[in-house]
Amino acid sequence: MKNMKKSIFKAIILLLTVIFTFSAFSACKNDNTSDDSGDVKTVTDVKTHKVEGTLHDVNVNYNEPVGTLSANGRTEYTVVSVSGYGVASKFVSKHLSAATGVNFPLEFAEECNLSAGKYIVFGLNELIKSAVTVPEAKILGDQGYYIKTVGDDVLVYCTSENGAQLAAIALLRALVGYDMMSVDCVIYEKSGDVLPAIEIAERPDYEFRINSNEMKGDAKYGMGFTQKSGMLQTETGNVHNLYDFFTQEDVKNHSKWFSEGAIVQRSAVGGGLERVRIGQPCFTAHGDKEEYEALLNHMSEKIIEILKNKPDVLNMRISQNDVLGENMTWKCNCAACNASCDYYGTLGGAMISFANDLAKKVNAYIDANEPGRIFNLVVLAYQEALQAPVQRKNGEYVLDEKGKGIPETRYDFDEQGNKTVVSDENGQPEKLVCGRGVAYEFAASKANWIHSFYEAENREFASAIEAWAGLGSSNLYIWSYEISYYQYLYPYNNYHILLDNFKYFKEFGGNYIYPEGTWENMNNPGFAKLRDYINSKGMFDVNSDYNELVDKFFKYYFREAAPVMRKYFNEVQVNLTINENITGGRVHSYGLSDNRVWPEALVTGWLNSFDVAQNEILKYKDTDSELYEALSKHILIESLFPRYVLCTKYDKSFSASQIKAMRKSFLKDFEDLGNTTHQEHFVISVITSGWNLD
After folding, report:
1. How many CB atoms lie within 10 A of CB 165?
2. How far is CA 394 from CA 139, 398, 473, in A?
3. What's the half-sphere exposure (Cβ side, CA atoms, 13 Å) at 669?
4. Considering only CA atoms, which of 302, 260, 298 is closest in space to residue 278?
5. How many CB atoms lie within 10 A of CB 674?
6. Pairing between strand 106-108 and 77-81?
């Protein structure tokens, strides 16, 4: 069992409470640092957790440059790339030009004579391998890369589009100090005049790094999020999607494929389109072997047809429904399903068995028609399937010497709930593990997501991950939760634990991570952009430093307004921590909006601080209008939260004309910023329709 050490976050709360005031912020120093001497920094990440065995060997020597990259308004360098990496090489050329003010020409070619000029060579792998010793493919993986200066040339080796994207970002980071906090916040910390000596060998710690907060494609690319998740988008989405493979006619003709009373229908919820999927699929076909085989054939045919038309699909969720409606259950209650759940202690046993059998049929097609194609069916370890179907003793998981679950014997269950051992091709009892082409996605919606999985608050859920790892540690996908889904506009105090969770999941084989945030809003308050930034760095390198990331974010995202905005952020964090007994940490709880957490005087003081922040950036209004508009927008986004609180909770403190004006202003800014919802699936008009703003 892992050595768990409690975060020192709570230990510093008493010291931090001195920062609270219930009045306006005082003026802050006009510099680019994240804090001034009067501010208090909060949250120091506990640095006891470090994942070993990652590949981030970065050596960039600026003290002994090997050449001149740009000088006197010109460069001698040309970017040469294979056409398949056009997006990445254009990205390099674009940002080198932007950082230096010099045009870096781009040529597409399959060959390059290094002796004929100065080149940044991108993806000409045979040429690169003839010039340098490239790390083995098994070390770099599909998305790793190797960058090295040879003489006065720069050689960039990569083997995939996603790898080329990450290599481009790493190269720009080395040459011009590139970084991106958001689509409108790109920085260059280096002038780009010298060419440093470079040798970089890296691969991302998570192969699939998915953003959840709504963002433009430019930001996704520039921040290193995976462009092609490879996860199939079915008709109604890519999760809770099994009914996308069936019609109501299937329900009628093959009732044993579904739980009792299953129907397929849709209805509008909260002003938006929401699926209503009553009942669940039955992963045992009620123990009827003929119907089970028919179900496998039906599903495999549907999946194979999709594969034929979508060559880029790498993953497809086959996941049970979210339960909607009264008296609904998370599983089928037939005798076979109940017996399976009783034996394995979870619905996960039947799910993995079904997925393995389904994958065999899909793999047969792949082997015959697309040999070598990688494809995974992903089951959802969620709700009654959250616990792992592994060995237990006295209700506790039995773990091996590596701290992972020990697989159980696989059984089939008949219509009466009787079990029969399943034998492998050698006639031996088969172990219930994830077979070829099967992965599981861990989605602990009831965990406490303001605490890391190293902490005692999440021991129950951490133990489940450890147990699942025994079914195939390379098959772990993670669905994490990053916001309160009943209160989108309120800050959620998880910033400081994001990296620790990335570390924990990685230790047990995490390779795909989807951090579900405010996926319906473009510019949500509560420092969602900071969370995006931490995610982008932590998914790439789980050992990233929290404090460094936060400092850098505030320094550039708010510029001269950084001190006042950092102070506001600190106070919000501390206030939430002090009131954790009220807010709780669950993502489906209404406690976060409790009036006791947000006294009117405190919120009003925060609101006043945004005027101070806007004043701090005024100097850019005439000198750099584009930067000014971006900074002003960043401040405006964060102002939405306290304004919303005053508009909804303290409206009686204002005259009718005052509150009407405040509400009109809030709603206009909220919508102009590209936002639509105040709660998952519930559009803001559900609230504002009662404001009588006409």
Report:
1. 25
2. 41, 10, 24
3. 20
4. 260
5. 14
6. parallel
Contact indicator for 77, 104 with CB cutoff of 8 Å: yes
- Tokens representing 263 are 């129907």
> Contact, 42 vs 10, CB < 8 A?
no
* Fold held by 56-204: Chitobiase; domain 2 (3.30.379)
How much is the pLDDT for 229? 63
User: Token match 């509150």: residue?
Assistant: 659
Report the alpha-carbon distance of residue 131 to residue 564 in Å, rounded: 51
Task: Determine the pLDDT at residue 598.
Answer: 97
pLDDT tens profile 258-300:
887 666 554 444 544 444 555 788 999 999 999 999 999 999 9
For residue 172 the two structure tokens come to: 């720009």
Contact assessment for residue 355 and residue 303, using Cβ atoms and an 8 Å cutoff: no
Mean pLDDT, rounded, for 16-24: 36
CATH 3.30.379.10, the chain: domain bounds: 56-204
How far apart CA 441 and CA 80 sit, in angstroms, is 40
Name the packing angle between helices 656-672 and 625-649 (round to 10°): 130
Structure tokens at 319: 């996941």
For residues 251 and 59, what is the distance between their CA atoms, to the nearest angstrom?
A: 60
Give the residue among 635, 516, 508 at the shortest CA–CA distance from 185.
635
Taking only the tens place, the pLDDT of each residue in 417-472 is 999 999 988 999 999 999 999 999 999 999 999 999 999 999 999 999 999 999 98
Mean pLDDT of 352-368: 97
pLDDT confidence tier of residue 657, bands split at 50, 70 and 90: very high
Taking alpha carbons only, the member of 645, 617, 640, 604 closest to residue 558 is 617
Instruction: Specify whether the CB–CB gap between 166 and 157 falls below 8 A.
Output: no
Element (H, E) at 180: strand 178-182
Q: Find out whether 50 and 543 touch, Cβ atoms under 8 Å.
A: yes
The gap from C-alpha 305 to its chain's centroid, in whole angstroms, comes to 29
The DSSP call for residue 547 is H
Tens-place pLDDT, residues 244-260: 888 878 888 999 998 87
The rounded distance, in Å, linking the Cα atoms of 350 and 410 is 9
Per DSSP, the three-state class of 176 is: helix
What is the SS3 assignment for 197?
strand
In percent, the amount of the chain with pLDDT more than 70 equals 88
Structure token digits, residue 454:
């190293």
pLDDT value of position 631: 98
Q: Distance between terminal CA atoms of the chain? A: 61
Q: What is the pLDDT of residue 236?
A: 56
Whether 593 and 538 have beta carbons less than 8 Å apart is answered as no
CA 642/CA 607 separation, integer angstroms: 6
- In 462-562, the DSSP E strands lie at 476-481, 510-516
Instruction: Assess whether pLDDT exceeds 70 at residue 44.
Output: no
Q: How many residues in the chain?
A: 694
**Contact, 541 vs 56, CB < 8 A?**
yes
Q: In percent, how much of the chain has pLDDT > 90?
A: 74
